[in-house]
Amino acid sequence: MTWVNDVLQGIFLGGAYALTAVGLSLMFGVMRMVNLAHGDLAVCGTYLATTVMAAFGVPLWVAMLIMVPLAFLLGLVLQLSLFGRALRSGTTAPLLVTFGLSVIIENLLLQTYSANTRGVPAGNLDVAAVHLGSLVLPWLAMLKLMLALVVIGGLSVLLRYTAWGRRVRATSDDLAVARLQGIRVRPLFASVTGIAIAAAALAGTLNAVTTGVYPTLGALTLIFAFEAVIIGGLGSLWGTLLGGMLLGITQVVVSQASVPYAILASQLLFLVVLAVRPQGLFGNPQIVG
Amino acid sequence: MSALAVNDLDAGYDDFQALFGASLDVATGETVALVGANGAGKTTLLMTIAGALRPWRGGITLDGTDITGQHDYQRARSGVVLVPEGRRLFGSLTAEENILVPAGRREAGPWTLEALYELFPMVAARRSHRAALLSGGEQQAVAIARALAANPRVLLLDEVSLGLAPAIVDAFYRLLPAIQESGVSVLLVEQDVDRALAASSRTVCLLEGRVVMTGESASLDRDALIAAYFGSPAAPPSAGDTGKVRT
Q1: What's the pLDDT score for residue A1?
Q2: Considering chain B, what percentage of its residues have pLDDT values greater than 70?
Q3: Which fold, A2-276?
Q4: What is the residue extent of each domain of chain B?
Q5: In chain A, fewer beta carbons within 10 Å around the N or the C end?
Q6: Cα separation of A25 and A35, whole Å?
Q7: pLDDT value at position A2?
């Protein structure tokens, strides 16, 4: 029965990876933009949440209610000021700009908060769990998996059934013609980036409840998010969920045999997918469906 | 007053000038045909009117209002809508979703979804199919319906007959009067001179970026138009580049 529990823990871990990666997937699917500062922006959200908690003495969930809308606003501002300009200047500019942003963020965080790992106090949320026979259902992991499903499912519904979603998909298909049909691309892209950064900040903060947070955590966050996106298929939100699950399951199952090889195994899975099916498992260029 | 007036327009791409002082006007509910050889600047002119290209010089007015400074998306909302060459539908959207894209921005007007389905029954039948999977004729119908859905003042049609069977092209041109009657002005680019003359009240001929001939389609001397089209020596003295034959 332990392997059933292992797979279950892998699915939970995968939910966390997917929630972290969904914004990366969304931005690529809509704008064909790879945001190398994705992980660092998630970490910014975490520091913001801890700062709010310390300053106002409020619990984590209240701090997150304040932090997530601010992360959305940060995404809006970044898209309007930096990313939009970069996108209009060719395909390499967004990579260079977001790489530069990543370096700036990490160093600003080092200056402001020092290199020490900070805990994210959340009561006993990081250890509380329901036990069903040999199965362990940790509350925090269940929360992250549920949020991943809500965010991905909610985005899919918005993209498929609302006028906003129709405009996003039309712009993703053909930007020049979308503009000629009266779509204003700048605020539309700003809303997409806002959602992406808000989801990343939400995921980053919940992950940090277990691991703590330090200024260079963003690079590691980015790698796993990136792998989930690639394994699932670039630009497919449900693919990203599946990619995260496969990464998580591989990591947890292998760790039962050998802990040091667990991370290696998930990287090998990524390489195998790249070699065998480079378009990803859901190798379909549409954002939903 | 003209619905659309283009005054002395210069435009081009980077350091390549494609239009030299082009002027034309389209009255309310009128159809004007734009003819010319490949590379004469027809598509460039439509793209400049639609706002995808910034003119280097000259101006564009819609119902007397200067729209030269407006962005492409603003022009679509003001009522200048382009049906681009090659249709360029949103391939991953269904036919109906394509038509609904400009709908949130639509002006009140006669072209509701129901009216469009009445005009194009073949689109109604395929409304829930993905646009990329439709036939060429169906895609063209969706492209025109998508443009009409914005209830435009001026409809710019860029080679709607390209790559379509003659019978389907005939069907499109039979719908043109219904579109005109709703008060829409049409500026259409057409390779087939006879079709252009038959469908329009006036015809404008472009040669190497210059307007070389304008006239009433019904009374236009077809031979003179063909000469202006190719810039051959038989062209009237008003033609710019006499003596050159373009193929």
Answers
A1: 63
A2: 91
A3: ABC transporter involved in vitamin B12 uptake, BtuC (1.10.3470)
A4: 2-87+153-230
A5: N
A6: 10
A7: 83
Q: Enumerate residues 6+ apart whose C-beta is below 8 A from B56.
A: B10, B11, B12, B17
Interface contact flag, A180 B93, Cβ < 8 Å = no
* Chain B CA closest to residue A285: B92
> Where in chain A does DSSP place strands (E)?
129-132, 135-138
DSSP labels for B98-143?
HHHGGGGGPPSSS--HHHHHHH-HHHHHTTTSBGGGS-HHHHHHHH
Q: Which residues of chain A have pLDDT under 50?
A: 289
Nearest to B156 by CA among B16, B51, B69, B22: B51
Residues of chain A positioned with their CB less than 8 A from the CB of B100: 163, 166
Q: Is A166 on the interface with B (CB under 8 A)?
A: yes
CB-nearest partner of A173 from B73, B84, B92: B92
**Range 113-142 of B in CB contact (< 8 A) with A:** none
Q: How high does pLDDT run on average in chain B?
A: 89
Tell me the C-alpha distance between B60 and B68, whole Å: 5
Asked if B180 and B186 count as a contact pair (C-beta separation under 8 A), the reply is yes
Alpha-carbon torsion A156, A162, A166, A168, what sign? negative
Q: Which residue of A has its CA nearest to B144?
A: A181
Per the CB < 8 Å rule, is A163 touching B104? yes
> Which residues of B fall within a CB distance of 8 Å from A285?
92
Q: What is the pLDDT of residue B246?
A: 42
Backbone angles phi, psi at B244, to 5 degrees: -100, 135
Provide the angle, in degrees to the nearest 10, between the axes of the packed helices A185-211 and A139-161.
Answer: 170
In the numeric block, the tokens 């090889």 are attached to: A261
Q: Does A184 touch chain B (CB under 8 A)?
A: yes
- Cβ distance of B88 and A174 shorter than 8 Å: yes
pTM equals 0.89
DSSP-H helix ranges across B3-120 = 42-50, 72-78, 95-100, 113-119
Contact B101 A170 (CB under 8 A): yes
- Which of A179, A182, A184 is closest, CB to CB, to B150? A182
Pairing state of beta strands B210-216 and B202-207? antiparallel
Topology of B2-87+153-230 in CATH? Rossmann fold (3.40.50)
Of A166, A177, A184, the CB nearest to B84: A177
State the smallest CA–CA distance between residue A120 and chain B in angstroms: 43
ipTM of the shown complex: 0.87
Q: Compute φ and ψ for B40, nearest 5 degrees.
A: -75, -15
What residues are paired with B10 via a beta bridge?
B57
Partner residues linked to B155 by β-bridges: B81, B186
- Nearest chain B CA: its distance from A168 CA (Å): 10
